[in-house]
Amino acid sequence: MAGKDDLTGQWDGHFDYPAGSGPSTAFIANIQQKGGRFTGTIIEPDLYSGAAPAEAQIIGVVAGQSVDFTKTYVRASRGYENPVDYVGQLSGDGNRITGMWSIYDMNGTFEMTRQVAIEESVERAETVEIDR
């Protein structure tokens, strides 16, 4: 597992549209970080065609708690031609990123949680249940 200062790994997330103008959309991000830069992929539902999932590449930077990346779709239906910018803050424990996405004059919010953090949370809940 990567340390709290390294984003490498799988993240489960979702992004939301402004004022509820679209559905909350789940995604899975796989990130590989080297130094202050990272690359990766995102897979999410293709909301335009409803067919195969949309796939995108990401490239970004992390400096302290600040995370900034651009998502560029590489396999998706018509309507996904433009890159999307993401700017967020990494939590103190390194397991959650929250922030804003933007494309032209539209923006919304996003949140990502490191997959290991989700698994550890489930394990703690199961341990509490067993101890009762």
Radius of gyration, taken over Cα atoms and rounded to an integer in Å: 16 Å
- What is the distance, rounded to the nearest whole angstrom, between the alpha carbons of the first and last residues? 30 Å
Please indicate the count of domains.
1
> How much helical structure, as a percent, in the residues?
10-25%
Major sheet attributes: 8 strands, antiparallel, barrel
Order of strands in the sheet with the most strands?
Answer: 1-2-3-4-5-6-7-8
Write down the CATH topology: Lipocalin
What count of helical segments does DSSP give?
A: 1
Give the CATH class: Mainly Beta
Structural class assignment: mainly beta
Q: Assign the CATH superfamily.
A: Quinohemoprotein amine dehydrogenase alpha subunit, domain 2
Number-wise, the strands total: 8
- Overall shape: globular
Q: How confident overall, as mean pLDDT?
A: 88
Structure in words:
With 132 residues, the protein is mainly β. It starts with 8 loop residues before the first strand and ends with a helix. The chain is globular, with a radius of gyration of 16 Å. The protein has one helix at residues 115-131, and strands at residues 9-16, 25-34, 37-44, 54-63, 66-75, 84-90, 96-103, 106-114. The protein has an eight-stranded antiparallel β-barrel. The model has no long low-confidence stretch (mean pLDDT 88). 13% of the residues lie in helices and 53% in strands. It has one domain (9-131): Quinohemoprotein amine dehydrogenase alpha subunit, domain 2 (Lipocalin), CATH 2.40.128. It contains one helix and eight strands.
